[in-house]
Amino acid sequence: MKKIVIAAGTGFLGDILVQYFKNKVETITILTRGENRTVNNIQYVQWDAKTISTWKNELEGVDALINMTGKSVDCRYHQKNKDLILSSRVESTNVLGKAVKACKNSPKVWLNSSTATIYRHSLDMEMDEIHGEIGSGFSVNVATNWEHAFFSHHTPETRKVALRTSIVLGKNGGALQPILNLIKIGFGGKQGKGNQKFSWIHETDFARSIEFIIKNQEMEGPINIVSPKPSDNKTLMKTLRNVANIHIGLPLPKFLLEIGARMIKTETELILKSRNVIPNKLKKAGFKFTYPNLMEASKDLISSS
């Protein structure tokens, strides 16, 4: 590949992709709210994620456009934050759609972030891209509006993929470090009932799956970016305790999680929703996971960090 463009490439997921692709492509262009600059083969180009300006020229003829834009959901869901979570996703997707349609030489593929949270809370059924049941509530409403905005743009020369990404476990951000911090102070037991499913993916497999999709031209539409087998919360916490070599793990019932969530300004949905999602399209296309097992993934990430 010669060039890829990553919108919001300075966040947790964007940085994983930059580190993975920087030695695989000639040029990475990152659309950022920061200043224009160039570091080696990485070019930072300013945009506001709302309006078209000269940044649109960066999309001409690129091998892939990857959109990671969106306000973090790790916050309290009051109305202001709800509005920002939704608008940051829909507005950035819409302006990219307009820019893609304006290209004389369109991107070969456009991968747009979505979320595995689009599926309903499920203890009983594994959700794939064909038979998965869409849920309800604020987070699902965000996801469905996000994907509607994405697929509403008619881009016949550009293949489109909605990345229904699960929780990405990584060394330098995301969900893993806060969980480890809880474990280190003794609160490494199950959270809530502990039976809620936990769909996850190692950061390396997250990046590798993106590369796989870019290279496989038959892949399009919604694709679940998750490890092959969901775990559950009780197993997750036990696995991380074992890897971290911490033997005491007090459970956190729902009422304590509610109090803690208010104190650190987040929502218990991020912990208590049962995400029971499987990567049917990736597996059928022949993708091989480097870290299909939660124990091996945890050992790699915790030893590395």
CATH superfamily: NAD(P)-binding Rossmann-like Domain
Instruction: Show unreliable segments.
Output: none
CATH class: Alpha Beta
Largest sheet: 8 strands, mixed
Strand arrangement in the largest pleated sheet: 3-4-2-1-5-6-7-11
- Record field, number of beta strands: 12
Assigned CATH architecture: 3-Layer(aba) Sandwich
In helices, the fraction of residues equals 25-40%
- The figure for the number of domains is 1
Write the layout of secondary structure elements.
Blueprint: E1 3-7, H1 12-21, E2 27-32, E3 37-39, E4 42-46, E5 64-67, H2 79-102, E6 109-113, H3 138-152, E7 159-165, E8 167-169, H4 176-184, E9 197-198, E10 200-202, H5 203-215, E11 221-225, E12 231-232, H6 233-244, H7 254-263, H8 269-272, H9 280-284, H10 294-304
Parallel strand pairs: 1-2, 1-5, 2-4, 5-6, 6-7, 7-11, 8-10
Antiparallel strand pairs: 3-4, 9-12
Description:
The chain is α/β, with parallel strands linked by helices and 305 residues long. The chain has one domain (3-304): Rossmann fold (3-Layer(aba) Sandwich). The protein is built from ten helices and twelve strands. The strands form three sheets. Strands 3-4-2-1-5-6-7-11 form an eight-stranded mixed sheet, with helices on both faces.
